[in-house]
Amino acid sequence: MQRHSKFSKLMIFVLIAVLSLTAFVGCSQPTAQVHHRVMVDSAIEESVTKTPKYIFFMIGDGLGAPQREITEFYLRQMTGNPSANLFMNTLDYAGMTRTYSYDTLVTDSAASGTALATGHKTNNDMIGQAPDGSNLKNLVEAAQEKGLATGLISTTRITHATPASFGAHVDHRDKENEIAEQYVESNIDFFAGGGLRHFVPQNSTLVSSKREDNRDLLKEFEARGYSVFTSAEEMRDPARAIREQDKVVALPTSSHVPYEIDRLNSKQDAVSLVEMVDIGIEVLSKKPNGFFMMIEGGRIDHAAHAHDPAGVIYDTLAFDESVKRVYDFYLEHPDETLIVVGGDHETGGLGLGIKRNYFLNLEVLDDAKASIEDATKAAYVGDREAYFEFIAENLGLDDLTREEKEAIIKAMDLEDSIPGKKGEKKYDIHMWGYNGPVEMTTANILSERAAISWTTYAHSGSAIPLTAHGVGAENFTKFLENVDVPKIIAEIAGFDLGH
Ligand SMILES: [Zn+2]
Q: How does pLDDT run across 228-277, given as a tens digit for each residue?
């Protein structure tokens, strides 16, 4: 009987595989071949018999192999445990994803977000649209079609490229006001992240609005049955009971959520990624048909753009804590949960090792208490002594060599000589990136002391790791295209992504 039922099962799989192959004939996707192999893989048995009810797609923005690795090394140093692992690196299955976009070998976050959300490569800057401008169906829409609840969480503005790729369709990522408007219509059940400034009318007293009209999207959300939260205090107010709500928009910051390193060292009790994830799980797990959640650790990328090693490490640790929280949910629903943890591209061209050294010196990061992009950048406003005190106190740079100090003074001379307000892009970004000479010089001094290096202020074109756990996770153990990831998720979850 046992043998017979196994044989019948096998026949069903063969049949499904044949039917699938037939269905793919004529499919012009270059990745169809990979897809076939995924379908006929003997490991697919579990996926065919089990469909996950709860799907977590976790994306570390800028989370390449070196970002995972430096954070794991630092974790070992922090804990004194030489075999400590990032939680995301202990999941059952691992694969790799190529990241190039339709028009360049080095993707931006819009094209990579679109690839991960829709299964289509597109041009840099485009959100949820093909290069010809047509809208592409994304995983959120496919999940909604199947009756699942959906949620988007990010530490960036929720209108930023990665979350936008899962909830909007626009021809340029900078159209954040339009992305916010599309969210109102999206029927997504849970939003948490930064970016309040794109949802409030110009005359708002909450924050300085970035809108060019007087639409109050928060009111529009409320009219559609959402509960709206605009600060950490509101999110934690027992009278508002955010966890009990049916549909939630939680935007505790005007722009991005603070870097984890600044959150940890600040007296303000800002909302953390894991707190947003925890609330999201509670809100969405009340839904009867399961859910699809996209969770982004969005500022790993920003820290890497700013060549900020401690910023990268702490935001990656915060993302990893969220993976652990999601894994705790998996333990309660092991037969119904799929967790996929990947990235969209590597940022910074982070090199673990410099010159002819065969060592890293991550101990120098122990005294880092401030991000480069937000805190250190704000620290130089013309008072040189105050800046040197700041970096001594907050970055452990209290013993600058003569060369290091001269390099910073030279950067200050340059910065002071250029008219324009701090924060405006008044520098040559090819020379200094998106920040400025003083903080970039400081960041590079700290990096060199740690024996690490950066090749770019932008992204790099390297392939990146992905790990997965739970129902169907074995299907990700390939050298994949980024566009394969959502296709495989859709296949396992029984979504129609329209491919
Ligand atoms: Zn990105």
A: 999 999 999 999 999 999 999 999 999 999 999 999 999 778 999 999 99
Give the C-alpha separation, 482 to 97, whole Å: 5
Model confidence at 422, pLDDT cuts 50, 70, 90, reads low
497 CA → ligand 1 middle, Å: 22
Could you tell me which residues come within 8 angstroms of residue 176 by beta carbon, excluding any fewer than 6 positions away? 157, 159, 160, 164, 195, 198, 210
pTM: 0.90
Q: Which two tokens stand for residue 323?
A: 């993976």
Distance 204 CA to ligand 1 centre (A): 30
From the CA of 388, how far away is ligand 1's center (Å)?
32
Using CA atoms, how far apart are residues 442 and 392, in angstroms rounded to an integer? 11
User: Tokens representing 64?
Assistant: 């390449």
| Short-list 13, 12, 107, CA closest to 59 | 107
Amino acid identity, position 163: P
AA letter at 230 = T
Asked if 486 and 498 count as a contact pair (C-beta separation under 8 A), the reply is: no
Q: Which two tokens stand for residue 494?
A: 């029984």
Q: How far is the CA of 211 from the centre of ligand 1 (A)?
A: 24
